[in-house]
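During the no-cost extension, the postdoctoral fellow (Dr. R.K.) reprocessed legacy sequence entries with the updated structure-token encoder. One reprocessed record is reproduced below for audit purposes.
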Amino acid sequence: MEETIFLILANGRVFPGKPFGATGEITGELVFTTAMTGYLETLTDPSYYGQIVIQTFPLIGNYGVIPQDLESSGFALRAYIVREWCQDPSNFRSEGRLDTFLAKRGVIGLCGVDTRALTRIVREYGVMNARVSRSPELSAAEWASLREFRVTDAVDAVTCPAETETEAPPGPAAAPLIVLWDFGAKENIRRELLKRGCRVRTVPGRTGAERIRALRPDGLMLTNGPGDPAENTAIIAALRELASDGIPTFGICLGHQLLALSQGAQTVKLKYGHRGANQPARHLPTGRVYITSQNHGYAVVSETLPPAARASFLNVNDGTCEGVDYDNMPAFSVQFHPEASAGPLDTGFLFDRFLRLVREGGGHAAR
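Re-encoded structure tokens follow.
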């Protein structure tokens, strides 16, 4: 008889299911993503560090495993919850089944769960801790551990271990050097920069301002990443120090939040966050709405932005800040993921805007 395992929520609700992928018991922060495609990108997105992810789309795994679509080489999420996983994928690019893929990498999966009811609970009461368990009942010690669980030191856990440099194919002009400050970067951010002819020097999240200055970058890319942005006090201080250097800067997701914090703004934890490939964001200067890919649990509080900064995008659903333009430095940022190409009017043009800033800055490599 197939084993039954249980998802136990901090509010006491218990959801039975069947195991797939790796087996085991684990505690994490329960969140949901509404994306209808892109489960491989979700599984390998470092921004899911410490979280148990519910996939609201009911059938997952139908196009198999495609290594070229992975956003990182590792897994940061703690468990993966689906209604049903496809045992016989069909796609000419597929190189395997999702179940086998998860099992080899030690990722716990739970299927056969009523993900609709589970998502409604998170939407109603907010993100909460949960545990995948072999037993429907927890001991007093396990309940205490479940309730006390927190996602901490997240950037340190997912950032790259050392500096690396990647060069784009040779072009007609000197390639600008972009320092990619890795807080848990998705691989496609690097791909978008390389596609535009940049040299990309990736540095760990713990890198200080002096080292970044020593690299003499033409531009600075602040990447996505997991956890509470306000926890990263050293990074925020380094960004505040670098702000006076005039380095063209582009922040994405956590990078957007950290840049705002460095300029005196505040961030707040959202009730259940924005996770999925169908989040509408309005560009305030034009009024156009873009369908965006997002994965974050915190937001910049627009009312706390300094006088030299202004919101550039707002979330159509809840009015939260989705982008900031700065007047006191060549910098801008967005909360969503322009490298993910989520909708019919994609936001990849933001990378072109960044490269225009770099060229107009006449950066170090050109001098």
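The radius of gyration is 21 Å. Residues 363-367 have pLDDT under 50 and may be disordered. The remaining legacy entries will be reprocessed before the final report is submitted.
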